[in-house]
Batch of 2 targets.
Target 1
Amino acid sequence: MCLGCGRRAPKRDLARYVAVPEGGGMVLTRDHGASMPGRGLYTCRSGACFQRATERRGFARGARGPVVVDAALAGEFGDGEAVSGA
Ligand SMILES: [Zn+2]
């Protein structure tokens, strides 16, 4: 499920993130290969959904604790919104 818009979709259609321990806190990291251990956090492959998930503290909720979110992660989607099969 996308933490931004709540859309349900197969995990392979979503972008996966994992909260990784770093410097005494947790840092959100994009898991490109869906291979990282830990609880997966998902959003649509859309900058808008990523942003919304951040604003709604969806990542922190999903990770069950504070997570540092690098806004640059949203840039990976370019214009976003162009999600096939949405
Ligand atoms: Zn979404």
Target 2
Amino acid sequence: MNVGRGSELELDAGELKRKRDGKMIIVSMCLAGIKCNYKGQSKPNKKVIELIKRGKAIPVCPEQLGGLPTPRSGARILSGKGEDVLDGKTKVISDDEKDVTENYLRGAELTLTVCKEHEAHVAILKQGSPSCGKGNTQGGEKERKLVNGDGVTVALLKRNGIFIYSEEDLENDEIWEKLQAK
Ligand code: SF4
């Protein structure tokens, strides 16, 4: 699988896996500086990019893996909780009012598959996303807004024992040192 083709980060996942003997950190692809978010923009984070360049991390975009185009419509979880989506209790609805639940579930499952392939027990994911948000996601009954809750991918990864950090957690020196030592 090639990731980041056409960006400043041209990576080959197989090559990185060999380099790290399987143990990788999974990171949100938009944090790697790749223009994959719903607006077709990136949210580059220097520390995430450093981890990738040092062969410790691999970028993944659950929404692209789920088959959604870039750019795409924003989306919200009707209850504001990714866990409820996993349990079939609520839906993910796009800003143009389409039911995109299946895309979000597929993206979460494929991200989990990547974690398993690379024996990743840690992920660094972008705050505030309906997929990648940890503790903050997109919710709202009628219109999208930031609410408390995990995104769909975060909920599935947590259920499978994967520890989630957000990009904001990287500002904590203790956490950053721990991640660099992995
Ligand atoms: S937050 Fe997650 S799903 Fe959204 S663009 Fe970044 S990697 Fe993709």
